[in-house]
Structures are given as C-alpha cells and as structure tokens.
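protien #1 (seq + structre)
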Amino acid sequence: MNSFELLESNVRSYSRVFGDVFRTAKNSMMFTEEGKCFLDFFAGAGALNYGHNPDFIKGKLLEYIGSDAVVHGLDMYTTAKRTFIETFNELILAPKGLDYKLMFCGPTGTNAVEAALKLARKAKKRTGIFSFSGGFHGMSYGSLAATGNLYNRGGAGAPLNNVTFMPYPYGFNESFDTIGYMENVLTDANSGIEKPAAVILETVQAEGGVIVAPVEWLKRLSALCKAHDILLIVDDIQVGCGRTGSFFSFERAGIQPDLVVLSKSISGYGLPMSLLLLKPELDVWQPGEHNGTFRGNQLAFVGATAALEFRISSNLEEAVKEKEAWVSDFLQKEIVPLHPAITVRGLGLIWGIDLGGLEGGEQAAKFVASRCYDRGLIIERSGRNDTVVKLMPALTIDFELLEQGCAIVKEALAAYFEQTGQSAHKEATLEPV
C-alpha cells in the first residue's frame, strides 16, 4: 500500500480514476514522475482554462513573489487587489455594460455560493431558494442544499432545507413548459410553495452532464424573476471565464443576473479564488457579515489580472469560437454516427458525449474514459450515473492536440462497440441549443 492509500482519507476521488503520480505540467500536457505524458481534457475540473503554468501568467506571479509584495492580506487594501478590480472593470464589466460590485469571498466556489444565498435572503427577507434538478453548486451546507445529486446530498449528515427544486429543460422535462410551471407555482395560492428570495442556476449544467439551457428559456426565466421580485443568481463557477466563448455564460441570452458567482478559472492559474458580483442596490451587508481568513488571495489577484490581459491580447474569445466549430463538426460527423443511442451537447469548449441511451451506458462511459486514460488522455465523466463523457480542454489548447484528443475519444468508443457488439451507424444529428 502506497503512502496515499495508507495515510490519505477515503474521500479522495480523482486519484482513484487517474492513478499515476503527476509531477509536472505545461499547457495542455501533464507528466508523471515515471516520465509518462498525458494530454489533458479535464483542465482541473474547469480551473485551468488557460492551461497548466501559462508563461504569461507565471511570469507575473514570479515577478510579484520576487518583489516581496504582500501575499496574505485578508480584505485589506493592497495594490494587487486594486489592480485586479480596475482591470476587471475596464476589460470585462464596462465593455459589457454591466454594473456590479465585487465581493471577495473565501477561496472556493462553494463559499461564494453561500454568500450569494445569504445575501439574497437578507436582501429579500425570504428564506426559500429555487434551484434546478441536475444542478451542482458546491459541497458546503447551503450550496449542497441547492445541489440535486442525491449521492452528494447524502454526505451532509443533516436535513438540507429551504430549497425547492424546479425542473430543468432536459430529458423528460425538455418538452415541458418549466417556466410556465414556475409561474403557476408562484401565482397559485394553493401551490404550497412560498415565493423564494432567489433562483440559482447554471446556464450550462456541467456536472449535470453538459446540459445547455436554451436561450429563450433563459430569457423567460429572467423575465419571470423580475416580474415576481425574485433575485436571479447565475453560478458561472465552471462555465464562466470564457469556457462557453464569451466571458460569462449568460451573455448569449442577453440577460443580466442580479448576482453572479465566479471561481475556478478566475485566478487564471489554478490558484484558489472566488468572486461574487452583485448589483449595487443589493449591497446590504454589514461589515464582516461574510468573511474569511483567505478572502484576499493576493497571488490569485495577480494571476487573474494577467489572465484578463492575456484574454484580450490573444483574442481568446475568437479562438474558442473557432475550436467550438471544429469540435461540434467532429462530434457530429465522427462520434454521433457510431451508434443511434449517442447524443452530444455543448457550447464553447465544454462538450458532453451522452451514452446514457446505450444498454449499460454507465459501463460504456467508464470503459471509454478508462481506455482514453490508457491511451494518454485525461478525461472525466459526469451527468446522471456518470454516463456523459465530458470534453473540457484548456481554452488555449493547440489545434493539433485538440484533434489528437478527439481522435483518442473516437477510438475508445469504437473499441467499446467492437468489444460489446453494439456498433450501429446512423445519420449525424446534434441536439439543438
């Protein structure tokens, strides 16, 4: 038994799937201490949109550390924080016409979700929250209450209250008027459900299986919240910071949420950081009402500033759109025809190959992910029963490596069908967004 198995808690998860000991990483590649190299289609679960150790950001961090600048500052004023605030406003908020104040939370996404829920309840003086089936918002108590996965919820050890789950437009509910249902719940005096303080959602459910909410649905949801004086919280922790192309995932719908939660790739380098954007009129906090020792990660501020500058100087948004078009075309032409039960979904550079319709879909997805790993590709599964193979490479990945990784995925699928004798072709179809 190695030291990890002997001394580390059983709660570890990714190491059970990716069993090598990794030592170095660069851009879209990871290297083990034994010298094996892996192509990364996992990107730190969305924390590495700019890849591993990107030179431009690393240089800024090394320069900052070398100057003996402040590394730990709680929520004190620092030059690093001021530079990030001004850069974020200049490059992101102002050009998009967004008026938000910035709240720096504890360094994980779930802490920013907790802050959003607390603030919504404080501002509206209501305790309830509407969340959506399939949603994932974190593993601390409040955010877990808004998370749909029963396995995750089971770890709470106590009742998870004050959240009502609404149907997300997917699967059985895809043809169901979910917004109409919510309208009825809110206007029916006998619905048994009280008006909530806020509605929280991911516009693309990443852990839920890469489920893309339709634009019209998002517009109707935003209008519903406005009509009923309910705050709209968008959790952009995994699919924000350019993952869907635009910096925020909700931009495609032309809506402006009341609160936006960012984490994962906001620091640009995989450094812990979370950020809550809130409309100015919602800033009803008293000093210190939501605090934390590490709510001022100075190195993350430096990395985040550099990432924003790199995003503009490299024209990253357009590059993502080009790669999105290529991946969509590849999946439609090379993956969907492999079997009539395969469906694919995605946006930007987050895509899911859903094998849930296959006989033994969970085992199929597990086989594909495992074979990809054996072939040198790190890729994860998500969705109901982990039946969705999720493609989430760095936004900066070279086209050659993107093509190489997708070819490995295709080979793994073909190997599964050959082994099980399930292979059957069909005309390519892509789920509409």
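ok now protien #2
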Amino acid sequence: MSGTTAAGSGSTRTANSPWRNWAGNVTSRPVREVSPASAEELAEAVRRAAEDGLRVKTVGSGHSFTSIAATDGVLIRPGLLSGIRRIDRETMTVTVESGTPLKRLNVALAREGLSLTNMGDIMEQTVAGAVSTGTHGTGRDSASIAAQIREMELVTADGQLWTCSEKENPELFAAARIGLGALGVVTALTLAVEPVFLLTAREEPMTFDRVTSEFDALHAENEHFEFYWFPHTDNCNTKRNNRSAGPAAPPGRVSGWIEDELLSNGLFQVACSLGRAVPPAIPSIAKISSRALSARTYTDIPYKVFTSPRRVRFMEMEYALPREAAVAALRELKAMVERSPLKVSFPVEVRTAPADDITLSTASGRETAYIAVHLYRGTPHRAYFTAVERIMTAHGGRPHWGKIHTRDAGYLSEVYPRFAEFTALRDRLDPDRRFGNDYLRRVLGD
C-alpha cells in the first residue's frame, strides 16, 4: 500500500470516557477505540470486532449533528490515516488518506498550485467524514465534494479491502461516495483537482423580496450563489463567487478580521448568548445584526473564499429541495416564523447544487436548493425544527444525512428513487450490520 504507515504503529485502547460530537448533542460509550495507521490495520480492527461480536463506527471531527457516528462497540479514529498519498498531474487527481482534515488538504493543494473545484463553507471535517454525509457548498455547475471523487478505497464488513471507481466495482462506487458509514470504512479517496484559480466574492445586502424574486436569475448568472435571511427582518446578505482573472485582492487584515471574526463570530456569539437569556430581545438583535455586515468585494484562491471560520456553536437542520420549490418553501418558512411565537437568532442559509448521479446524494437526479436553519447551542430547537421540517417535507425535501431530522426509511425510500439499490447493496456487503447503529436502523431500515 503506497504511502501508508507500516503496520503495528497504530493503537487500540479501552474507551474510558464517552465520545461527544462537536455540537454536544450526541454522546456514545464505545467499548474500545482504535487508531489504525494503515488500511491493513483498519481491516484487522474490523475482523477483530466481528470476532468479538462488536459493531464498528468511524468518527472524524464529529461535525455531524445526528448520531450517524455513534457506537456502543468499536470506535475507529482515523487521525493516523492522514496526508496525501500521491498527486497525478496527468489525470489531475490527488489521492488522500481518509482521516485528512479538509483544512490540511486545501493548504497542501494550494502549495502544489492545485485546488478542488468546489467545497463546503467549513473545513474542519475529515475528508471521509465530509463525503460520507454529503457535505456540499453552493454551485450552479459544480457539485458536492463527493461528486469530485474519482476512486475510493474502503474496508468492508468481512475485513476485505475494496477499490471502486466508475470502471471498477461501479455499483459500489455509485453508492459509497455518500455511504453514510453503512457500506464500509473508507481508507483513501482519489479526488479530481484543477490548477489553482482565483474567485472574486461579492457580498451584498439585499431585501428578502428582491432576493426571492430574482433567485433564478441570481443562480443562473453566478457560478456560486448563496444568501442568508435573518428571521424577524426583511434583510438578507448575498454572496456571489465567480472565477476571476485577478489580480488577487484578499480582504485587508483589519477589515477581514472585523467582518469574519469580530462581527461573524465574536459579536454574533454575544448576540446569541443574549438572545438565549432574553428571547424577546431576539427580533431587535436580528435587525441590528442583519445591518452590521456591509457590502464588500475581494479576490483570493478558492478555499479562502469558499470557507469561513465558524466559532459559534449551534444546532442545524438542512433540507434539499427541488430547486424550483425553494422560493415557495422559503416564503412559507418566513410566514411561519412571523405568525408564531418562535424567536430565531440564527440566519437561514440558502445554497444550490446541480443534479448528480450518487445513489443517496441529496442532489441525486435533480437540480437542488438547500435551506438550512440553525439555533444557538443550548436553545430549545424542537418546535422550530419541527415546523420547518413540516414545510420541507411537503415539498419532497431530503434531509442532510449529518444534520438533525426525524425522517425514517419509509419516508426516505419515497424521495430517493434509488433507495432500494443502496439497501440491497448494504444487505450484500454487511448482512450482519457490523457498521450499523440506531441512526442507520432508522434511516435505512433493518
């Protein structure tokens, strides 16, 4: 195995403390934790778990809000499976170990004069964790990180190491790119890359009525368009990212810090804390917050434009809708908030993606718009999320696999035309549900 650490350098230990996710809403108590340093060590850990009758889950940075990575058996931490194995400039691909943080990958690619085509808005996740749950950014023509995969390597429930691509094991490749941890443990990924390029970001306030009435045009005219609506206001903040010939003109050190750290993180943290303590103050705070971010334009390499620091912890629900349903759903959401006693301190985020061919991708087979709602961690979220979910499911919405939702296999089999294809493959690869847990039992059935 080219580029892997020699067997015998990983570690296995009894888990003495519970595992918690980033948001703090999921806790599990594994029997033991394994940190394999090679695909062979990982395969051995899976075989040993089977001998002991234990289930297996892998956890990256714990950025999922669902219990998709929770286990009472063996918890695999892929931190030693990290780094770039190889860069192929002829095929323009990079092969990367599964536990590599996206941040490290982006920096390393930039150093080599390369970049992913599109990415999400944070880069704390591991590569495998991000693709397994369907992490995406926004794009008219370019899709999720999983859609950029050209080859995968994974260990299945019998401890065998598989490689899959469009040509090799294509049925597995179609499903495993967003595999939910249900088909195997990913050990390496080969991603398409391109020469590093520049993006010009144009951030601009816009009214809710204008952005919704012009949504189709804004989507069509920009390579990457997204916006945030601030509940209890008519204010939105829009962001348009388009390729640029340059020159690079990144945000000034002081002005960038003010926008990205002071306003978007520091003062926003204070505002959220105040809102949680005094909910009636939230609408007034929202009006001030929504006016604090001013228009700005800057040009930089992709990961510095696509991603932002997210230091305020929150709970999140996100639904993928047919793109043509997004504006109607968003207007229903706004009307619901206005007539309810809910006090919502976090903006609502709207992004898009083209259709892709991944079996359980939220954009599988259809042009997609994403509507994400958030609440500050520690704020009761059930009433708001339930009301939002009712709207989204009425439009045939597909929940993000790593974000809070209440859907089950019965519902999901109706909104995913290829759902049975995925579960049949799972039945063949993991008949004993070695990679199962309560979350997968709910969303995939048993």
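Residues 253-277 form the longest helix (25 residues).
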